[in-house]
């Protein structure tokens, strides 16, 4: 009981201070304790890359920018910037996006 | 693999290729994703202009999205089976034909149209076919009526020579594989006294008696039926005999020979090159003549080419195209040099003699010589073998 109390206090403090990158949330601790898949519980994206040609992002939020050389995608872990050439969206559903083309970099721009 | 299936699925469902132009293409894509309008193969064509593929159902929902985001959507191409069908929708005869085709194939494929029997050596194929027919397996029989298991059981019971049979229906073909029982010599039961007697003439090379008394020695010439190992064992100091079941092997030299005449001329029939072809069509089991011409050749040989309509190896249909070729021939006598003639005769004699040698015999010497009688030359081949010639025979019995 005491411990969970402390946890909630902790998360409140975090929300107040905005120091979220360092302190783990209750949810995160909880999912780690129970070994639940983080991408589902914490709404984090799951990236799968095959070589530098195919990139699949599961659990994305939205496409922010799309051009042949750059793709910016909003996810639960912040914005992902993908640069390369000849980039195309092979498939897009409300949860997953499959990108193909020559990928040069995958960057987390403002990781939260 | 996954993408192959995906593409096939899209082809079956039908899709369209569209061009989207506008400043808020990202927004367009996001709204489509949120509204579960499935887009794929989204490619930048040039600045602010992309092509994408979308299903038929999705395409109907795309107009409001385009209006909302201020994008212009144009249809570029229609792809997939539904569009192919809509093109042919009015052609009723075509569809009727396609349906009829499938129905016909299915109807025809539910009958047995050919029977293939393999593995029989002494059993006649026709005999086996008749036996199969008695169990309901014949050409023209409905496949679903055939109970292969019952047929296998019945055949095994009815035909004593069979040691194994398998019946499989593949397509319109029934594949029957058989194995035959080997002829086994009459075996004298172990507890009954017997002699070992000669199966054939020969000169003894080795006698090994495991039970009984050796009646012949190495070098003896024996005739067929002669006792080689006796089952009558004399009792010392007595007139009586003790009867045993003789056992052992008797290896002997045996000879097999045959002859062939040496022929210096050979009649040859040569095709002159003139040929008449007759065609006919066999439907089910009725033969329809298409052309029947008179064959004006004085001498001819014929052959028949039968072509069955099949799909693959196993789906045989009851249509057959038969071509009968009549080749005109001319007979000619050809002279052969003596050397060639001798060689041919020698080979023939050798082959014939070889055919007489039983399987288990070991050939130790081969000889071919020529004899002349009344001006005729004959080749004789003699094969000397070593083999076991002893077989058990009951004492006092047959």
What does the secondary structure layout of this molecule look like, with pairings?
The complex is a heterodimer of chains A (112) and B (398).
Chain A: H1 2-17, H2 26-34, H3 38-41, E1 46-50, E2 54-58, E3 60-66, E4 70-75, E5 78-92, E6 96-108
Antiparallel strand pairs in A: 1-2, 2-6, 3-4, 4-5, 5-6
Chain B: H1 2-13, E1 15-21, H2 25-34, E2 39-46, E3 49-55, H3 56-60, H4 62-69, E4 72-79, H5 81-88, H6 92-108, E5 114-118, H7 125-134, H8 148-158, E6 162-170, E7 173-180, E8 194-198, E9 202-211, E10 213-214, E11 221-222, E12 227-230, E13 232-234, E14 241-243, E15 247-261, E16 265-283, E17 286-289, E18 300-311, E19 315-335, H9 338-356, E20 362-373, E21 376-388, E22 390-394
Helix pairs in contact in B: 2-4
Describe this structure in words.
The complex is a heterodimer of chains A (112) and B (398). By secondary structure, chain A is of the alpha+beta class. Chain A folds into 2 domains: 2-36, no CATH class; 44-108, Immunoglobulin-like (Sandwich). In chain A, 26% of the residues lie in helices and 46% in strands. Chain A contains 3 helices and 6 strands; from the N terminus they run αααββββββ. In chain A, strand 4 and strand 5 (78-92) form a beta hairpin. Chain A is elongated. In chain A, 18% of the residues are buried. Mean pLDDT of chain A is 79; it is low at 1-19. Chain B has 398 residues and is an alpha+beta fold. Chain B has 4 domains: 2-85, Alpha-Beta Plaits; 114-180, Roll (Ubiquitin-like (UB roll)), CATH 3.10.20.310; 188-263 and 336-398, no CATH class; 265-334, no CATH class. Chain B has helices at 2-13, 25-34, 56-60, 62-69, 81-88, 92-108, 125-134, 148-158, 338-356, and strands at 15-21, 39-46, 49-55, 72-79, 114-118, 162-170, 173-180, 194-198, 202-211, 213-214, 221-222, 227-230, 232-234, 241-243, 247-261, 265-283, 286-289, 300-311, 315-335, 362-373, 376-388, 390-394. Chain B is elongated, with a radius of gyration of 40 Å. The interface between A and B is medium-sized, with 16 and 17 residues.
